[in-house]
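Need residues for this backbone.
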């Protein structure tokens, strides 16, 4: 028994000796190939402080319950199988958001616009991790009819928030662009002057530039170096007693030397040069009209006009029923009525009946119309392929000098909606001098037509006879995925508003002889190049003229650049700009301000003026009033009838 006890004692001593000789396992001090001291591990200062904290938590006090809960949570984490793994921090809201019910947070987010949701998700990691905003954006995306079936491109880290921001941005750009229009040498814009219009909150139509043909509409033929308010409507022209009560301009468009505007009531007003019938006033040799004059449809004068587009010398208008009407020059069949005779009055375009047209565009000598189902119709001059019909190229090759024109609308077969996915269908169109553009629902850019100056952005100078996809993927860092929010065409240049994961950038390509690309130089480019000075601006819409350009910010600021030899930039001088310059003192009107008022809202009427008291009536006054009213005439006739009866 003693031997066994002695052996057991020796074994326990050897085991204790081996255990004391093992190296320390402190993770913060262990190195490969190194052994620490064989001394037994002593309690560290951190361990002592933790023990003191646990002991203090065990004491009764106001913090005992909180510390006990923290100790239990820490113990549960240490006992979990994933305790050794790196734990992701739980996203926490700042301020008092964490105490709000989730239902209230959802309600607040529902009240935010797509732009505000995108800013929240970009600036706060909580919203990205919880995906609350992404879920709201997905629900809103499903409610947009033309965006059904669209999915975010996960390969480029796109989510529903950025996709919703892009889709709604397309609609906002199309509406906001109608507030600015360029002619060859003049500009018209719907703006608010805080000094004049700030008191009432109403916007006005301002024109500036060359006025030789009366295209400014001020009742004269003088030029304007700065924006001047147009006398249209009684509220603006108080001194005009014959002016109608409420004429509020809602849309503006410009041709080469004429201007058109649609009022809130759907009335079309035109003024300027009308020698080819582009004003639609049915006057063969009208010459010039230097003030706004209403233009009526030939067969339906009471129909409201909802959209207007101006070419060089012709005009297209869309009525409330989706019918296209045209007037003006028709040498290349751009009126679409099957003839080549100029039209002095607005008449319907043949060949699109049965389709509801939602948008139209006009170039130098060609026209475009977009139907509600995504069908694209083109007609007019097609010498450079601007009509998008590949079959016309064979005609030009066979007969080089043959004029290529279409006197009636033809559907672009390559963009047939039945052959395309919903997000591949056309949602907006634009026409330049001799080139055209179509933007799909998914943001693809399709260019066709003349490319002499690189205005198609294809990287070369070859004309395109069929819609060709242009990938706007240029950045300083490399190739990225962009979706086109808006594309507008000038005479020889193109501007594009492109979105990349919620970031919107402005691009330009084409001729740059007057600095209309806004790149800070005068060199043309044949690829989509970003406009440097606009990257820090919150741009929502672009507009292009012959050799001038404009950008509208979300705040309403208007930037202009390009040709200015006729004061068409409104800067007070005639110096052209190669970089965007702010138009000081004016803000572009928001599209919501131009909508037609509800019928329940009382229209703005003239102030009631007390009538002067009537003078006292005399015998002569009574006789004169009786004679004017026909009383004396009737009595004389009755007397003559009585005498005739007696004689009979």
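Answer:
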């Amino acid at each position: 028994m003693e031997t066994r006890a002695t052996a057991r004692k020796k074994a326990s001593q050897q085991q204790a000796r081996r255990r004391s000789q093992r190296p320390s396992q402190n993770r913060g001090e262990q190195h490969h190939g190194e052994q620490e001291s064989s001394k037994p591990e002593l309690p560290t200062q951190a361990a002592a402080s933790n023990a003191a904290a646990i002991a203090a938590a065990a004491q009764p006090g106001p913090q005992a319950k909180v510390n006990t809960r923290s100790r239990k949570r820490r113990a549960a984490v240490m006992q979990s199988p994933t305790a050794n793994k790196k734990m992701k921090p739980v996203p926490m809201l700042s301020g008092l958001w964490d105490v709000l019910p989730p239902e209230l947070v959802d309600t607040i987010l529902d009240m935010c616009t797509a732009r505000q949701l995108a800013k929240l998700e970009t600036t706060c990691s909580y919203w990205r991790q919880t995906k609350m905003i992404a879920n709201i954006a997905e629900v809103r995306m499903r409610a947009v009819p033309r965006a059904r079936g669209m999915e975010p491109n996960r390969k480029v880290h796109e989510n529903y928030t950025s996709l919703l921001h892009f889709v709604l941005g397309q609609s906002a750009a199309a509406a906001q662009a109608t507030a600015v229009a360029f002619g060859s040498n003049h500009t018209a814009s719907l703006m608010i002057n805080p000094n004049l219009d700030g008191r009432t909150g109403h916007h006005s139509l301002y024109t500036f530039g060359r006025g030789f043909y009366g295209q400014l509409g001020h009742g004269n033929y003088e030029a304007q170096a700065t924006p001047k308010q147009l006398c249209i409507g009684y509220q603006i022209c108080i001194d005009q007693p014959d002016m109608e009560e409420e004429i509020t301009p809602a849309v503006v468009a410009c041709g080469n030397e004429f201007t058109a505007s649609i009022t809130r009531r759907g009335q079309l007003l035109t003024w300027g040069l009308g020698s080819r019938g582009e004003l639609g006033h049915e006057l063969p040799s009208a010459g010039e009209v230097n003030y706004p004059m209403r233009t009526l449809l030939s067969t339906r004068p009471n129909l409201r006009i909802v959209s207007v587009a101006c070419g060089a010398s012709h005009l297209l208008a869309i009525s409330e029923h989706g019918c296209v009407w045209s007037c003006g020059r028709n040498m290349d069949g751009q009126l679409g009525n099957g003839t080549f005779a100029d039209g002095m009055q607005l008449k319907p375009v043949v060949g699109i009946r049965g389709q509801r047209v939602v948008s139209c565009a006009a170039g130098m000598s060609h026209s475009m119309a977009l139907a509600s189902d995504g069908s694209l119709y083109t007609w007019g001059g097609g010498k450079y392929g601007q009509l998008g019909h590949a079959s016309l190229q064979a005609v030009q090759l066979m007969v080089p000098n043959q004029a290529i024109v279409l006197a009636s609308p033809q559907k672009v077969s390559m963009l047939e909606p039945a052959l395309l996915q919903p997000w591949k269908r056309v949602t907006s169109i634009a026409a330049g001098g001799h080139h055209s553009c179509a933007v799909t629902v998914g943001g693809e850019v399709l260019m066709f037509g003349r490319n002499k100056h690189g205005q198609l952005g294809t990287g070369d100078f070859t004309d395109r006879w069929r819609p060709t996809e242009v990938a706007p993927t240029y950045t300083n860092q490399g190739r990225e995925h962009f979706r086109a929010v808006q594309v507008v065409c000038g005479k020889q240049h193109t501007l594009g508003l492109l979105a990349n994961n919620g970031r919107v950038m402005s691009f330009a390509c084409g001729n740059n002889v007057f600095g209309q690309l806004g790149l800070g130089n005068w060199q043309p480019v044949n690829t989509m190049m970003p406009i440097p000075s606009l990257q820090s601006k919150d741009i929502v819409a672009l507009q292009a003229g012959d050799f001038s350009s404009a950008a509208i910010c979300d705040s309403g600021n208007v930037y202009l650049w390009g040709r200015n030899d006729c004061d068409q930039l409104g800067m007070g001088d005639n110096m052209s700009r190669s970089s965007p310059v702010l138009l000081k003192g004016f803000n572009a009107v928001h599209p919501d301000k131009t909508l037609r008022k509800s019928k329940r809202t009382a229209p703005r009427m003239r102030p009631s003026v007390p009538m002067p008291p009537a003078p006292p009536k005399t015998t002569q006054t009574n006789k004169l009033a009786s004679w004017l009213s026909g009383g004396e005439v009737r009595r004389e006739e009755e007397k003559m009838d009585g005498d005739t009866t007696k004689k009979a």
